[in-house]
């Protein structure tokens, strides 16, 4: 599944994986989220509800451009830098590029929607 993230004039695209958590996330779309900085590595946002973790691995090692769900907190994470293995982190997909917009300090409002 392809998604589009619109942040002002910037448009990013991404590809979701075929797993239960990613499908559950896609079912929430469209969403407008305010992403905030976390650990100088990612932008995060709360979601309206927790996602399914059925069949998910116990954790993952994120790379720049990864779209992930952090199950312990129930939030979405968009990585602009790689990070060490994190328990409870489930990869949802990958951004196709343009992650520079995520590196700007401060909150970032984005609309996330499925592409047709």
Instruction: Determine the CATH topology.
Output: Cyclophilin
Low-confidence stretches: none
Class by helix and strand content?
A: mainly beta
Biggest sheet descriptor? 8 strands, antiparallel, barrel
In total, how many beta strands? 10
The tally of helices reads 1
Question: In the CATH hierarchy, what is the architecture at level 2?
Answer: Beta Barrel
Radius of gyration: 13 Å
| C-alpha geometry | globular
Instruction: Report the span from N to C terminus.
Output: 9 Å
User: How confident is the prediction overall: mean pLDDT?
Assistant: 96
Biggest sheet strand line-up? 1-2-9-6-7-4-3-10
Structure overview:
By secondary structure, this protein is mainly beta. The chain has one domain: Cyclophilin (Beta Barrel), CATH 2.40.100.20. 6% of the residues lie in helices and 47% in strands. The protein has one helix at 20-26; strands at residues 2-7, 10-16, 31-38, 42-46, 59-60, 66-70, 75-79, 86-87, 89-95, 108-114. The protein is globular, with a radius of gyration of 13 Å.
């Amino acid at each position: 599944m392809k998604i589009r993230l619109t942040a002002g004039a910037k448009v990013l695209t991404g590809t979701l994986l075929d797993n239960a958590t990613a499908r559950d996330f896609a079912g929430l779309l469209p969403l407008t989220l305010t992403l905030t900085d976390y650990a100088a590595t990612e932008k995060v946002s709360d979601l309206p509800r927790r996602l399914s973790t059925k069949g998910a691995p116990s954790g993952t090692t994120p790379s720049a451009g990864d779209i992930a769900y952090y199950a312990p907190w129930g939030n979405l994470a968009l990585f602009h830098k790689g990070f060490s293995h994190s328990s409870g982190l489930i990869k949802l997909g990958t951004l196709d590029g343009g992650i520079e917009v995520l590196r700007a300090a401060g909150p970032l409002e984005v609309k996330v929607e499925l592409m047709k």
